[in-house]
Design brief:
This protein is mostly beta strands. The protein has no helices and 9 strands. It has a 4-stranded antiparallel sheet with strand order 6-5-8-9, with no helix packed on it. It has a 3-stranded antiparallel sheet with strand order 3-4-7, with no helix packed on it. Strands 1-2 form a two-stranded antiparallel ribbon. A hairpin with a 2-residue loop joins strand 8 and strand 9. This is Secretion system C-terminal sorting domain-containing protein.
């Protein structure tokens, strides 16, 4: 993430172009889709944590793989506020989503 600004102006935050994770729909019922922008085909790991902080799912994509997403039935993990944690190119990105 790059910070732009001067001493007199507050910095503006630019999003990290390396990490893009989309979850939909949000809130989710019986299906949720995860999409990772991975045009450079870098290796990445996506982990899902339940409301208590327990990892309930892990998905690993090796370098060179063109896979960018998958669908999941989240109801087997329960309901509440979940976190998806994307690790790619040494960076970490977290996305919150709800399961109802």
């Amino acid at each position: 993430m790059a910070l732009l600004g001067s001493c007199n102006n507050p910095p503006e935050v630019e999003p990290d172009p390396i990490l893009t994770l989309v979850t939909y729909p949000n809130p989710a019922g019986k299906r949720i889709a995860f999409h990772v922008e991975n045009d450079e085909r870098a290796a990445f790991t996506l982990q899902i944590y339940d409301p208590k902080g327990k990892m309930v799912f892990e998905w690993q994509v090796p370098e060179g793989d063109a896979t960018q997403g998958f669908n999941l039935d989240p109801t087997e993990f329960g309901t509440g506020a979940f976190h998806a944690v994307l690790r790619k190119n040494g960076s970490v990105y977290t996305k919150k989503f709800m399961v109802i």
